[in-house]
Design goal:
There is one protein chain. The protein is mainly beta and 181 residues long. The chain has one domain. Helix content is 13%, strand content 46%. The protein has 2 helices and 9 strands, in the order H-H-E-E-E-E-E-E-E-E-E. The chain has a 9-stranded antiparallel sheet with strand order 8-7-6-5-4-3-2-1-9, with no helix packed on it. A hairpin with a 4-residue loop joins strand 2 and strand 3. The longest helix has 18 residues. The termini are far apart. The N terminus is likely disordered.
Length: 181
């Protein structure tokens, strides 16, 4: 009986050690996150043409300030040989603004559907989002992803330079949801 109890206790300790969260995870917890997916119908100011943009992103920021995530944006406004421009980014910067509902994101473009001089692979790009409540459709906002000649990261004081209006979250999400936490 004593051997059975000893073995049971030992087994329980091993099981507890396997199931307990690691010390690494506890030392650097997630402090902010931004996630979203959706569609935007937008109007080209120059031509009046209505076009659709589809986006998805997910990023977390850890207590040490590092961030990790991905974003994918498809714009039907920009095409080459009937292919929509599709951008994939590895997000490495997340800044949640003091309002708690607006976030700035930036990262490196890792892939595009075709070579485009305004979004070359390897260049830092940025965008911003705004979570205006549930449900997100009709109230949440997403910015454009403009050229970034000055390589601005999300935590740069002049994040929007040289054209701040292009990275402001001003475009309403028609279908989808954004969450900033």
């Amino acid at each position: 009986m004593k051997k059975f109890l000893t073995m049971s206790a030992l087994g329980a300790l091993v099981l507890a050690a396997l199931l307990a969260p690691s010390a690494l995870g506890d030392a650097n917890p997630v402090v902010h996150s931004a996630t979203g997916a959706g569609h935007q119908d937008d109007v080209d100011a120059a031509t009046g043409e209505v076009f659709n943009r589809t986006f998805s992103f997910s990023v977390v920021q850890y207590a040490d300030g590092t961030a990790q995530g991905n974003a994918q944006i498809a714009s039907r406004k920009f095409q080459l040989d009937n292919r929509d421009l599709l951008i994939h980014m590895r997000i490495d910067c997340l800044l949640v603004l003091p309002d708690g509902k607006t976030a700035r994101l930036s990262g490196v473009v890792t892939q595009t559907s075709y070579p485009d001089p305004e979004v070359p692979v390897g260049e830092v790009h940025r965008f911003s989002v705004q979570d205006n409540g549930e449900p997100g459709a009709g109230v949440d906002k997403f910015s454009g992803v403009p050229p970034n000649p000055l390589n601005r990261d999300c935590d740069d004081a002049d994040f929007g330079a040289p054209e701040p209006g292009r990275v402001a979250p001003t475009r309403t999400v028609n279908r989808g949801n954004i969450q900033v936490r």
